[in-house]
């Protein structure tokens, strides 16, 4: 007599996993890589998919994506197979994939010979009043003439650009970072990609020295801070751990501090702030026990391209810098705020911030004879205004919902704030009078559709907002009358960046 045995749960799970892996290799690997680390298509890892909800991912896999190379698989796979495949790509790879210095070097692509590029713009628009508009709908970037308020060029980008483009050499070159770790150097004068390199697997953002000689890349995966030269050749990759080398950490973001000729990094999992000098004219860094600094009795490492650590009691996830970059205001995701002096390398004040402040989009201005900064909040429906001398909260300005972006210009009386974290109010922009610290106007889009991320023209005359939808637009407003001037159709414009405002660190835009 034959006995039939039902498979165990483990056997069933293994069979299901094997089936999903087989479907992935058959249908997905050619574009997304056999190891899910990406190729022509983006990496399919939980870290890289964090902003794409599973139902949306399922729809893309089933129906494809218009105007991209992503085909539909609804006819090839059953509903259960599609669901299992999507669940699988949201499952971490174990062990976690690595991306070595050899991988970085091997990934570099030279797209254009710099010697063959023109040394002046190939267009007649003001190169300092250009906007770069990142269109996430079909992974393109549009170049807008800020005087005529019209596009002059559009080019494909890597998938899921993140952290905002960074400009160098007077705005000629711009560097983009993608979620998949790709860093792109683009010649804005010649409207062409110069070089690319993959610096990580999941990347937060990039920072660039003003002369374009050094580029820093903040990674979530692997836990590294990667340093490149301006042509995207690897200088070094730093494994990010605490002082004792025991606790590894993701890098939340890296910022460029021009007056200090350094990069400053926020660490996600270790209570430290790192400062990395990109000038060789910097003192060495003491490590371990030092008997005599003057006599150099102890252990030192070079200050150039090595981290100088500031040890803190709490992890900081987001930064805002004072205008001279001597102090930073930081906050954790738990809402604990503190002020850190980068010269004495310690906390000098607490910040009374509630909720989840988004200090990275903070702005400053002069108010009643004092310098203030203001920040949105990802949980609380307010804009918080802080005195930069006393670190006291001067005003909590109520808004219609938690917001992400706050923008202004030194030539404008107004600051624009969105409520994009609120499902009910994400179509509203609120206008704050920087003198009275009150909301004086609401600009309403269509309910249910996100209106956010304002950026000003070089002279502050116009404010451009994103209708953050696949069939969206850049909406232009007169910055004085607050009336709509025109709309430029765009594919989910998630951010706009004006060359002049960025390279001059204009007080009304984030740095």
Topology at a glance:
Layout: H1 9-27, H2 29-32, H3 54-63, H4 79-89, H5 101-107, E1 109-110, E2 130-135, E3 140-145, E4 150-156, E5 166-168, E6 173-177, E7 182-187, E8 192-198, E9 202-208, E10 214-221, E11 224-229, E12 234-239, E13 251-257, E14 262-267, E15 272-277, E16 285-292, E17 297-301, E18 307-311, E19 318-321, E20 327-331, E21 337-341, E22 346-351, E23 357-367, E24 370-377, E25 382-387, E26 393-398, E27 406-407, E28 414-418, E29 428-433, E30 438-444, E31 451-456, E32 462-467, E33 472-478, E34 484-490, E35 493-498, H6 499-503
Antiparallel strand pairs: 1-8, 2-3, 2-35, 3-4, 5-6, 6-7, 7-8, 9-10, 10-11, 11-12, 13-14, 14-15, 15-18, 16-17, 19-20, 20-21, 21-22, 23-24, 24-25, 25-26, 27-28, 28-29, 29-30, 31-32, 32-33, 33-34
Can you tell me about this structure?
This protein has six helices and 35 strands. By secondary structure, the chain is mainly beta. Strands 1-8-7-6-5 form a five-stranded antiparallel sheet. It has a four-stranded antiparallel sheet with strand order 4-3-2-35. It is globular, with a radius of gyration of 24 Å.
